[in-house]
Amino acid sequence: MSVQERKQRERAERERLIVATARELAEQQGWDAVTTRRLAERIEYSQPVLYSHFRGKREIIGAVALQGASEMAVAMRAATAAADGPRERVAALARAYLDFAARNPAVYDALFQLDGGLAYAREDTPAPLKDAFAALLETLGEVAGDGVDPGLFTETFWASLHGLATLTREGRLPPEHTERRVQMLVDRLAMA
Amino acid sequence: MSVQERKQRERAERERLIVATARELAEQQGWDAVTTRRLAERIEYSQPVLYSHFRGKREIIGAVALQGASEMAVAMRAATAAADGPRERVAALARAYLDFAARNPAVYDALFQLDGGLAYAREDTPAPLKDAFAALLETLGEVAGDGVDPGLFTETFWASLHGLATLTREGRLPPEHTERRVQMLVDRLAMA
DNA sequence: CTCCATTGTCTAGCGGTGCTAGGGTCGGAT
DNA sequence: ATCCGACCCTAGCACCGCTAGACAATGGAG
After folding, report:
1. What is the Cα–Cα distance from A51 to A156, expressed in whole angstroms?
2. How far, in Å, is the CA of A15 from the C1' of nucleotide C29?
3. CA A13 / C1′ C29 distance in Å
4. What are the tens digits of pLDDT across the range B89-147?
5. B101, exposed or middle or buried, with CB in 10 Å at 0-12, 13-18, 19+?
6. Is A173 in contact with B112 (Cβ distance < 8 A)?
């Protein structure tokens, strides 16, 4: 049995290698540069090996997205834990969100811009995605305001952050004054 | 000279046909389906003809984007003109924006999601883009609040709308309650 | 009217993409 | 020792964006 177990371990290890390599390549040169040929070459296997782990490129993007969601949740919780008071927590959360998006553009794209074949906002949504949303909700629920559904408020606030993140990164918004825009969102949306 | 003029007219007409066909195909089957081969076949010319009008696929996307920007500006001004009071105008603007994005997803993608090779938020930004932003500014400038730069406020509000539009369309936000989210943005961001 | 040059268009092809069929090799079980 | 199955690779499919080069049609000059 030990042989089978070893093979299974090696297989899992190789799968991790694929995801890590795809992510690395995407961060270095953008997702367009992540082709099955290049990816296969980097992991030193032939293309078909990729397809024994994932249905296709889409699923690889999805795997990177799930990894990113977990890290993002950690980053957001760390940021809010270090802040005092609801309002400060919201500000810290927003900055952590935008900071993550700016530092990991490829991962952010995998999560919210590209099609990774993942289900969002449903019962069968993968746990890491639900948890990332939960991390938002924990802090934002405090400042939803009276009679306002915390989930709905979180969705709206999240959408605003997402718009800021994407438009800024693609140069559709001037890069300066980002902090002032964030501050404005926090000041006006958060009720506390 | 008349012959040259006729040819020039026909050439311009064909260029319009290319843009219209690309847009139509994109709305029907998504931008992925807009390949140079399919596009060429639909306009009943060979592929190289496309390249005598545009540098490449990117420029075709850009042309659709500019067309869309003009239409969007018209739609937003029409919506705000029919509303009384600053706050109502903002609400009408927001609805018009999201309505346009929902009804013309491919055009919206060309404008804000894909790379059409256009310059945004600069002096050399094409006029239609500047004008679309101006249409936003006309209404949003009224409710920026005391001591707040109208441009900065417009950018922030726009980003929020953009986030709502994209996340909703890709199923990352549940489709219901869209109206309540918009209302929340208007209520809290607009100062008037 | 003939010839030439320019303009316009097409066919064919290059290097790339995601993905897969089919064959060979190698190791564990009998 | 032999078999068998799991594993992986080579080769190739249909498609992509884009372009070189051949060919035909057209307008102007002699």
Report:
1. 38
2. 28
3. 26
4. 999 999 999 999 999 999 999 999 999 999 999 999 999 999 999 999 999 999 999 99
5. buried
6. no
